[in-house]
Design brief:
It contains four helices and 20 strands. By secondary structure, it is of the alpha+beta class.
Length: about 325
């Protein structure tokens, strides 16, 4: 019995020591981070006030502004754990003079949303280390740190690439941007989002009778206005083509690609498909494939309808709206 008590006591002591060590290390990393960022911000403040890169900027053709300054300075993040200090010469925004580069301590990341700070801006930068949050705030040209989350938003930081804000450039045709959007990103201002979710893909959208492959138009006699629509979709591009890459045998790859389309998977339950026939009527489907016959009724004998297919994943993410999702039905 005494042996069991001793073992339990020892385990408790080890747990307390490890837990205390973890908390101490986490707190030390947070203090190191906020101290380092404060020091770096004070460094860009000093460089700006002394205009230490006047000669270099002048050699680039920069002129003094109304305050007699030739450059501004900034701290700009390259990603979630590294940053640079730069001088931005007047009229040379796109060619900064980098004078220092640094990494955050291990396990520390900057919270997304801010690309850094240009001296003169007022904002708060938040950092996270192993679940612990700390912040550095610049207001009234004073730099202060805190062990709490900063709710002071201010500016979004200097103009930079989307990744500097901790966001992602989304390909509009393949991805759907989710979360906050950063319109000041230099590389993809309209498609810089917190997260890029893969759009569902329409693999085929066909009809019987067959439509014209060039302009996707389908000519129907008035007395034969029934159309059979068929479609095959996929939850994303990767699942559509992953089977093609799994084998060197072309036959096996072809069979695998067909099986990936016609085998039900978990994501299929998250897919909804909507077919708008263009005449005020719609049909909804569940699953990745289907077909439906529709009767068009043209009162004048000469009508045009635009049948459009749309795939929706997780009730939010829609397939890209392109001409390949459209069939123009004409009766005459």
């Amino acid at each position: 019995m005494r042996i069991i008590k001793a073992i339990i006591t020892t385990l408790l002591i080890i747990t307390l020591v490890l837990g205390s060590g973890f908390l101490l290390v986490r707190e030390a990393l947070l203090i190191m981070t906020t101290s380092k960022i404060k020091s770096s911000i004070n460094q860009i403040k000093e460089v700006q006030q002394n205009q230490q890169y006047t000669t270099e900027c002048a050699s680039k053709g920069s002129d003094k502004d109304e305050k007699g300054k030739v450059h501004e300075t900034q701290l700009r993040f390259l990603d979630s754990s590294s940053y640079v200090l730069e001088a931005i010469c007047n009229q040379r925004e796109m060619t900064p003079v980098e004078f220092f580069q640094e990494d955050l301590p291990p396990f520390v990341t900057v919270k997304p949303g801010k690309s850094g700070i240009r001296w003169g801006q007022e904002l708060g930068l938040n950092f996270e280390v192993l679940g612990r949050i700390g912040s550095v705030i610049v207001v009234d040209e004073k730099v202060v740190s805190s062990s709490k989350l900063s709710n002071f938003s201010g500016a979004s930081g200097p103009p930079s690439e989307c990744s500097s804000y901790g966001y992602q450039c989304c390909d509009e045709t393949m991805h759907y941007g989710v979360g906050d959007q950063q319109l000041e990103a230099l590389d993809c201002p309209q498609d810089c989002f917190e997260v890029c979710e893969e759009r569902p893909i329409i693999l085929s959208f066909s009809t019987q009778p067959t439509y014209n492959q060039i302009d996707r138009s389908l000519q129907l006699p008035v007395n034969e206005s029934k159309v059979l629509f068929s479609f095959v979709a996929s939850s994303n591009l990767e699942s559509s083509f992953s089977a093609l890459l799994e084998s060197d045998d072309p036959v096996e790859r072809f069979i695998g690609s067909i099986e990936s389309i016609f085998t039900k998977n978990q994501e299929e339950d998250l897919i909804e498909i909507e077919l708008d026939f263009g005449d005020g009527k719609k049909e909804s489907f569940e699953g990745l494939r289907g077909q439906v016959e529709h009767q068009y009724k043209c009162p004048s004998g000469n009508c045009e309808y635009k049948a459009r297919l749309k795939v929706i994943k997780n009730k939010e993410i829609e397939s890209y709206d392109s001409p390949q999702n459209l069939v123009i039905v004409q009766t005459n």
